[in-house]
Amino acid sequence: MFRVMVCLLGLGLVSACGSDAEESNRRGRLSLRAGKVLTDGPECGVDLPACPEKTSCIAFTLDGATRAQCLDEATLCTDLLECTGGTTCAVLASYPGQVICSGKCQGDDCDDSVSSSP
């Protein structure tokens, strides 16, 4: 019942409910680009020391493990990380910054978002 109400209220797009909505809730997975290795940059966070110059505190999930590490935000999505399923790597402006895969994920390399669970 709650799902139906949310779908009806969501901009009046009743057709967005059901399997199409569930399909659009799938997210791409972050992975390292071929031949790249994640360096052991310092861990970071609210109660930890500031990141070295030219790096930012970035949170990300790789292989199911979430971590926050000092990394070069300028080259993070272009040189180090990529997303699966046709999605795009993006860094959200927050503290710590958060790397996500943006866009509609298609294919087998997608994860279901938490909001699509019953």
From TrEMBL:
Origin superkingdom: Bacteria
Listed name of the protein: Lipoprotein
Organism phylogeny: Bacteria, Pseudomonadati, Myxococcota, Myxococcia, Myxococcales
